[in-house]
Amino acid sequence: xxxxxxxxxxxxxxxxxxxxxxxxxxPIRIFVIAPNxxxxxxxxxxxxxxxxxxxxxxxxxxxxxxxxxxQGYVVACPSAYHEFEGPEPIPYDVEGTDRGNKYKIEKELAxxxxxxxxxIDLLCSLKNCNGRIAATGMCLGGHLAFRAAFDRRVLxxxxxxxxxxxxxxxxxxxxxxxxIRVNRGDLTGKGExxxxxxxxxxxxxxxxxxxxxxxxxxxxxxxxxxxxxxxxAFVRDESSKGRWDAALTRSLxxxxxxxxxxxxxxxxxxxxxxxxxIEHVC
Length: 282
Fold this sequence. Notes:
Elements: E1 3-4, E2 10-17, E3 28-35, E4 45-51, H1 59-69, E5 74-78, H2 94-104, H3 109-125, E6 129-138, H4 140-148, E7 154-160, H5 178-184, E8 192-198, H6 206-218, E9 223-228, H7 246-263
Parallel strand pairs: 4-5, 4-6, 6-7, 7-8, 8-9
Antiparallel strand pairs: 1-2, 2-3, 3-5
Helix pairs in contact: 3-4
């Protein structure tokens, strides 16, 4: 039974989905936050997978997802570390940070990808989702939203301060293939990608951001690349260690929603390249 706040226009529920790659046989819990429009029980909406930081689905992540849902999207939030513990949020303290970072490089890369596939599959199976899917995430979740874009069903990914892409250090062995796959053309001709970084982000230095940008542009991936005056985790409205920027978050949330509305909020059919060139005019 979905939880519904009578004063709210969203519902909250969760699904425990069996996994094939969890060595302990545990399911993944995927939290779902969806619009609730009174009088329209058969309404259908686009879907968004919202990937969390290393702390799983915390209050800030749930609130971020809830804001997306209230705009008219069914949002799925996967629990990142079901191989190691339950779906409860990991504290933002030192012990929790160490635990989340430890899990991040103990989990298999294929298991991260399976989680994304299961979240997309779930959204596509829900009666209130129309099957048009986007993705977003922050920190670890930004990298996972990037990798979700390899799935052809994902029409847009907005990645906030995605970590470990430039260094290829995600998952067990710290040797992921994210940029290798971009070079191989696995994102070329697919959905739209948005990369958002703070210029004062010590997790992704300038050289790393430059590498990501160049790799995407060389592969002719449809990308918007935003660098703003902010540190890491600037969208986190709780325990941000002094880095939360509410005004900047509000502005970039609007940017993200424009991308989602344009790419999954409407159905334009298959893109047809008419072969024309852009006219050089003033």
